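User: Study the chain.
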Amino acid sequence: MARPALAAAKRLAALKRRLKAAGVPAVYVNDNFGKWRSDFRALVSHCLERSCRGRPLAEALRPDGEDYFILKPKHSAFYATPLSLLLTSLGARRLILTGIAANSCILQTAADAYMREFELIVPSDCTASILPKDTRTALAHVRRMFKADTRPSRRLRITAHRER
């Protein structure tokens, strides 16, 4: 999955720059890899080590000082995390879901976000799965079932975020 993930990460980094310029906050939600004592900064540091296979992705998506971080124990970013509370405090009504893997974590998070009545955007070029057909199937599902906008990131119109 390294090649499609890195391609998606590069497009995601470009999208993040556009969103940041508009004042839209970024929330990184990552698997805790079963390490219950881990913290996000330690996870990023590990991923940036020379020996880590995910290093190119970590370099492309390196967080900024003002980004938010949540570690998750399972597929959905909402399951057993404070994400709902954070999104409420940010005044979020629309979520842009990106990352790996479209047919697992993105799909599960989209379902939970839809049940919480968020408007969803899942840019088709900012996610990947092991097999490209799995990404296409997941995107079709979130578009049909959760009414997600799945246009490529370059076609998204970015508007300024209003702080609460």
Q: What stands out?
A: The beta strands are 27-31, 68-72, 94-96, 99-100, 119-121, 127-128. The CA atoms of residues 11 and 150 lie 14 Å apart. The radius of gyration is 15 Å.
